[in-house]
């Protein structure tokens, strides 16, 4: 499985949005600066995320983005599917010989299920909690 730049940047941006949502609407410019991402690329990503129903965009001076539903209801898998489509490590065209079919069933499908289960079980809220815990641990150890 190879997740493209679009998927990786999309996850970073959505986690950033969830981290800063309590501050009100979050601007793409703010996300771009904090995550060192191209603003133009983020606009394209957020257009897809808006179409998929993950974010709500508001125009104007007080505009920005917010999550369309709570962070604990948005899995990493659903975000990646919206941005990437199929995440399988296996391409159906690869079934041609008995060994390829065997590998598909006993290796590639197993990998796909494990990755999918992990990504479905992990929400934006989980990521926010982990980041906050990591930051508080780092602050504690610095003292």
Automatic annotation (TrEMBL):
InterPro entries: Tscrpt_reg_Rrf2, WH-like_DNA-bd_sf, WH_DNA-bd_sf
Domain of life, source organism: Bacteria
Xref: Pfam families: Rrf2
Alphabetical list of SUPFAM superfamilies matching this protein: Winged helix' DNA-binding domain (SSF46785)
PANTHER family named in the record: HTH-TYPE TRANSCRIPTIONAL REGULATOR YWGB-RELATED, WINGED HELIX-TURN-HELIX TRANSCRIPTIONAL REGULATOR, RRF2 FAMILY
Protein name as annotated: Rrf2 family transcriptional regulator
């Amino acid at each position: 499985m190879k997740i493209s730049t679009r998927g990786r940047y999309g996850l970073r941006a959505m986690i950033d949005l969830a981290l800063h949502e309590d501050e009100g609407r979050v601007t793409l410019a703010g996300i771009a600066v904090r995550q060192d991402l191209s603003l133009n690329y983020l606009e394209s990503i957020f257009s897809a995320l808006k179409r998929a129903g993950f974010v709500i965009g508001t125009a104007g001076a007080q505009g920005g983005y917010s999550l369309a539903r709570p962070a604990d209801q948005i899995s990493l898998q659903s975000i990646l599917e919206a941005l990437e489509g199929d995440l399988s490590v296996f391409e159906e065209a690869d079934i041609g010989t008995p060994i390829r079919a065997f590998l598909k069933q006993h290796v590639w499908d197993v990998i796909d299920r494990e990755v999918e289960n992990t990504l479905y079980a992990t929400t934006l809220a989980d990521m926010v909690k982990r980041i906050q815990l990591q930051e508080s641990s780092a602050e504690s150890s610095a003292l």
